[in-house]
Write a structure and sequence with these properties.
By secondary structure, this protein is an alpha/beta fold. The protein contains 14 helices and twelve strands. The protein has a seven-stranded mixed beta sheet with strand order 1-9-8-7-4-2-3, sandwiched between helices. The protein has a three-stranded antiparallel beta sheet with strand order 10-12-11, covered by helices on one side. The chain has a two-stranded antiparallel ribbon with strand order 5-6. It is globular. The two termini are about 25 Å apart. The site of pyridoxal-5'-phosphate has 13 residues, from α3.
């Protein structure tokens, strides 16, 4: 129950262990097409350029920036946690002219501030932000932010690593231009793959670029020769050897989301989050983020006064086989991050977390009522 990688279901692990076949084998090519269809389903998009990048979420971030940003394109990056900060590092390396907007840790990207910044400077042509900030547990209003960007003729780059399949995310309806995610958060797949998707406007921008991409591996113009088949390009060509077994696993995890239904997956995350919060509040553990902006899949809580951060996490792990996340960046030492991602988001885990926390906290001299907290959890489910 940390911030990822989340638990991988036995079904996905079994798919991972299937015999490795060639990355141009006809059977594998069929699987690639199915993966693209399933990715379109989870992203809620018709975007043709929707593929898994053969590397983790950070490579998806870099794919978006390296392909979308021409040197000196003016990009506005919003920072309300670690991953917004990482975006600025990547945007700089892509040669962007950079403007940043910072928001307090634990708060959302404020659309009014973004509107103000875009209105103040016509030269900004791209807006980048994190939909679900895993370092703070905050959801920003991606729909509104994209609306504002469109009004100011800006393309959007959105980090959906922790939001995909955990909370509402609608790529086409919200008009997102470039989006990346990861496999090891709410998709509950093995780490190391990054689904990405690009709108027609984004593809037009990529295709009209004269600047040769400074990254060879992530250059979509080259990668597409492997992932796409068309009249102009009847045969797929080798670019790099795809991580065949990891893609089996991704295929299986996407199928599981489709079987459950995307909206049902969102509702499941919300339901178990509510039960967790009910239990935590009886234990006297406060959430950091205002209710409206909380991520159900990543709960940042204040470490109670006088409680030893590391000792509690070590005891949870050694006595209960339970991992929760430490605070990151500015939250290091004063927050825990309790994940409820993908297949780890279930009642048994909520109950384990509340009862284990009660036991360990009492052991550490922090007085709390575990039975009452468990009753609150049960009540939430009832
Ligand atoms: C985990 C995460 C990333 C990075 O993904 P990696 O797979 O670790 O490279 C990027 N952005 C957010 C919001 C994340 O939670």
């Amino acid at each position: 129950m940390g911030p990822g990688p989340s638990d991988v279901s036995p079904r996905v692990l079994k798919a991972l262990g299937q015999p490795t076949i060639g990355h141009l084998d006809p059977a594998f090519v069929g699987l690639m097409d199915e993966i693209k269809d399933l990715l379109q389903y989870v992203f809620m998009t018709e975007n043709r350029l929707t593929i898994p990048v053969s590397a983790p979420g950070s490579a998806g971030m870099e794919t978006c920036f390296m392909n979308m940003v021409d040197p000196n394109d003016h990009v506005l990056v919003c920072i309300n946690g670690v991953f917004g900060g990482r975006m600025t590092e990547v945007a700089k390396r892509a040669g962007a002219k950079l403007t940043t907007l910072e928001f307090d840790w634990g708060t959302e990207v404020d659309p009014a501030k973004v509107e103000e910044a875009l209105a103040a400077d016509d030269s900004i042509s791209m807006l980048a932000f994190v939909h679900a900030e895993t370092s703070t547990g905050v959801r920003s209003d991606a729909k509104t932010l994209c609306e504002i960007a469109r009004k100011h003729d800006c393309l959007t780059i959105v980090d959906a690593v922790t939001s995909l399949a955990g909370i509402e995310l609608r790529v086409d309806d919200w008009g997102i231009d470039a989006i990346y995610s990861g496999t090891q958060k709410c998709l509950s797949c093995v780490p190391g793959i990054s689904p990405v998707s690009f709108s027609e406007k984004a593809v037009a921008k990529i295709q009209s670029r004269e600047h040769t991409n400074d990254s060879w591996f992530l250059d979509l113009k080259l990668v597409m020769a492997y992932w796409e088949q068309s009249e102009a390009q009847p045969k797929r060509a080798y670019h790099h050897t795809a991580p065949v077994n990891s893609l089996y696993a991704l295929h299986e995890s996407l199928l599981m989301v489709k079987e459950e239904g995307l909206e049902n997956a969102w509702a499941r995350h919300a339901k178990h989050h509510n039960a967790l919060v009910a239990g935590l509040s009886v234990l006297g553990i406060e959430l950091i983020v205002a209710e409206e902006y909380r991520l159900p899949e990543l709960n940042t809580v204040k470490i109670p006064e006088g409680v030893d951060d590391a000792a509690v996490r070590t005891a949870l792990l050694s006595q209960f086989d339970l991992e929760i996340g430490a605070g990151l960046g500015k939250f290091a030492g004063n927050a825990w991050r309790i994940g409820l991602m993908g297949s780890a988001c279930k009642r048994e885990n909520v109950e384990l977390c509340i009862s284990a926390l009660a036991s360990v906290l009492n052991e550490q001299g922090y007085d709390c009522d575990g039975d009452a907290a468990m009753a609150a959890v049960a009540n939430s489910y009832a």
